[in-house]
Amino acid sequence: MNVALIAHDRKKDTIINFAIAYKHILEHHHITATGTTGRLIQEATGLPIHRVQSGPLGGDQQIGAEIAQNNMDLVIFLRDPLTAQPHEPDILALLRLCDVYKIPVATNIATAEILIRAMEKGEFHWREIVKER
User: Fold this and answer.
1) Which positions are catalytic?
2) How far apart are CA 81 and CA 59, in angstroms?
3) Which parts of the sequence belong to the MGS-like domain (predicted)?
4) pLDDT in tens, the chain (133 residues)
């Protein structure tokens, strides 16, 4: 599966700890991450990460393009809901694309854990059906 990992600045430690805890699952999938998030996860876990631009520099849009091309299966985007983001329109566009293309998206750690555990159990077979369309 193709998994995107994104985190706002105040959520970087959380996503790093998430990647460390679930490295045994993530290592079996193709991981794409925005700039700094990808670098930090790669340094902490040794996982191979395809890095795109930082979110504010177009990384959210790059991941959105992968979704629109049906090349992404899961998005974990740990957002900071209490801090204004200068690229909020890009964030909303990414979330909208997840809805349009039926891509599971987690915006907090609780949902991220539910999705990663479902992925571990192989409970994303429905994605193959969606991809065939």
Assistant:
1) 60
2) 19
3) 1-133
4) 999 999 999 999 999 999 999 999 999 999 999 999 999 999 999 999 999 999 889 999 999 999 999 999 999 999 998 988 888 899 999 999 999 999 999 999 999 999 999 999 988 776 665 555 4
Q: Is the pTM of this model over 0.85?
A: yes
Q: Which of 11, 52, 13, 14 is nearest to 31 (CA)?
A: 52
Q: Dmax of the chain from CA atoms?
A: 39
Q: Is 58 annotated as a binding residue?
A: no
- Tell me the CA distances in angstroms from 66 to 22, 45, 81, 82, one per residue in order: 23, 24, 24, 28
Question: Is 45 strand, coil or helix?
Answer: helix
Locus of tokens 């998030």: 37
Tell me: is residue 111 an annotated ligand-binding position. Answer: no
The answer to the question of whether 34 is labelled as a binding residue is: yes
User: Which domains does the chain carry?
Assistant: 2-76+88-132 (3.40.50.1380)
